């Protein structure tokens, strides 16, 4: 009597085992399908930009303002330091430097120091702007770097050919430096279209 009972128990286990396996596979199948659909939708979705265009143009305007403001103190610092240094050097007017009087050489060197400060101003201002906005300037790639690349790609596709410019029809804002908002971007597009019409067909601008 014991063996038939054990045989019946084994048979019942054999009957229930496929059912348990079927339930297990049925429970995991939807999750696998959901994960595959999620991965497919993620791979096919377009890459979104890290910033909106109005926000980026506002930040771009602030960064340019920082660069412009820092140009003033760096230029004055170059002039002051260069002038103070070369003014302190004792020179003999009879001792020429490359055939030029030392006074003129030192004056030119002072102007060179002032020009160096003028060139360092935008770089210093942009660097300080990046330090004060770490969330936008850090990363690989950084959000501002991504937006700068996208912006200049759009500008390069839509700007006019500068080889057709003339005295009466100069190329308008070739690098898009005056674009600080969506309205100025639309105005830039209109200026490029007017420039192309005048350059290609000699059609006068509608505002003239």
UniProtKB/TrEMBL annotation:
Q: How does it sit in the membrane?
A: Multi-pass membrane protein
Q: Where in the cell is it found?
A: Mitochondrion inner membrane
UniProt-listed Pfam families: Pam17
Instruction: Give the stretches traversing the membrane.
Output: 65-87, 103-121
User: What's the main place this protein lives?
Assistant: mitochondrion
Question: What is any one GO biological process for this UniProt entry?
Answer: protein import into mitochondrial matrix
Instruction: Return the GO cellular component terms, semicolon-separated.
Output: PAM complex, Tim23 associated import motor
Please provide the record's keywords in A-Z order: Membrane, Mitochondrion, Mitochondrion inner membrane, Protein transport, Transit peptide, Translocation, Transmembrane, Transmembrane helix, Transport
- Superkingdom in the source lineage: Eukaryota
* Oligomer and partners: Component of the PAM complex.
Similarity-based family = Belongs to the PAM17 family.
The record describes the protein's role as: Component of the PAM complex, a complex required for the translocation of transit peptide-containing proteins from the inner membrane into the mitochondrial matrix in an ATP-dependent manner.
| The protein's name in its UniProt record | Presequence translocated-associated motor subunit PAM17
Q: What is the lineage of its organism?
A: Eukaryota, Fungi, Dikarya, Basidiomycota, Agaricomycotina
């Amino acid at each position: 009597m014991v063996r038939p009972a054990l045989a019946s128990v084994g048979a019942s286990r054999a009957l229930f085992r496929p059912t348990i396996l079927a339930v297990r596979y049925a429970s995991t199948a939807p999750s696998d399908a959901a994960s595959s659909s999620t991965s497919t939708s993620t791979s096919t979705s377009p890459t979104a930009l890290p910033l909106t265009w109005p926000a980026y143009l506002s930040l771009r305007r602030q960064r340019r303002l920082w660069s412009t403001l820092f140009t003033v103190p760096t230029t004055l610092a170059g002039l002051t330091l260069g002038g103070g240094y070369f003014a302190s050097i004792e020179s003999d007017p009879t001792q020429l430097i490359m055939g030029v009087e030392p006074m003129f050489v030192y004056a030119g060197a002072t102007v060179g120091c002032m020009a160096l400060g003028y060139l360092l101003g935008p770089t210093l201002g942009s660097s300080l702007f990046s330090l004060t906005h770490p969330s936008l300037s850090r990363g690989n790639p950084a959000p501002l770097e991504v937006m700068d690349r996208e912006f200049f790609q759009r500008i390069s596709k839509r700007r006019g050919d500068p080889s057709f410019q003339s005295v009466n029809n100069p190329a308008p804002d070739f690098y898009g430096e005056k674009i600080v908002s969506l309205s100025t971007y639309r105005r830039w597009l209109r200026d490029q279209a007017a420039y192309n019409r005048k350059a290609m067909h000699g059609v006068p601008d509608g505002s003239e």
